[in-house]
Amino acid sequence: MKTILITGAGTGFGHEVALRLAAKGFNVIAGVEIAAQVHAVSEDAKKRGVSLRVEKLDVTCEGDRQKAADWDVDILLNNAGISEGGSVADIPAENLRRQYEVNIIGPVMLTQLILRKMVAKKKGRVVFMSSVAGLTTDPFAGAYSSSKHALEAIASALSQEVKEFGIEVATVNPGPFLTGFNDRMFETWKSWQDDPARRLFDYSKIAFPHEQYDPEPVFETTIGVLTGAIDTYRNVEPKEIIPQQREQLDAIWSQKVTDGLGKRPELVQKAYDIKPATPV
To answer: Which residue ranges run through the membrane (predicted)?
Structure first.
């Protein structure tokens, strides 16, 4: 069976996908950010009755990335990521840099190393866990969304660049799923090292402005993309929001800078009105 490396496998999508792929008999390397997660994921695997290899792999750590360069990986899932919430007008520089280091720089540097062995074998698959936030943008998610927009560009460029070496590239684009990830994004302000009095917004009063779905479709689609059962380049879940995404993208072409000027946009108001972790 092929060897699949999954980053960010300590929690969320990566965690569940790693365990399910191990159950299917794949050789799974579950990369986790911190050493404590090595034990936690290993214990979860035992409870499921599956076997996988768990390695500390902080994508922002050069030493961890160099260690991974020695592994014989057939399929790479760049899943590790964080979400920094807050207005573009307020987010501190340190938080913005951390957003980009984890979601862009680290994964790209790791991919460069893993690609070398794939190129030598003339085959391989690189999958980026992107987001619908890489296609469209919500208020208070500009930092996170911009990191995913960057990842979309990187994935698209890489796809064109490595075709001649027999390497496939794909993206998975989850929408709003109820894993805790989105709600935590709207709590990062609690650790900001700034002057709260200078903020434009009171973040204690706002929340993630979408109802959220059960994450099951993301698990199955990601597994399909990784194993080759799904061969489409872009894979949005849930599929029911694809028309909405296309509509939002098209609307930009006719949007005027004066549209709605002086009024609070609907989605900003919803951030004030909705409760955290609201299901669909």
So the answer is: none
